[in-house]
Amino acid sequence: MPHLGVNVDHVATVRQARRTYEPDPVWAAVLAELGGADGITIHLRVDRRHIQDRDLRLLRETVTVKLNLEMACWDEIVEIACQVHPDQATLVPERREEITTEGGLDVIAHRERVSEVIKRLKDAGIFVSVFLDPDLNQIEAAAELGADAIELHTGPYAMAKPGKDQEQQLRILEQAAEHVRRCGPELHAGHSLNYKNVVPVARIPGMLELNIGHAIVARAIFVGMEQAVREMKQLISF
Ligand code: PXP
Question: Considering the chain, what percentage of its residues have pLDDT values greater than 90?
Answer without folding.
Answer: 96
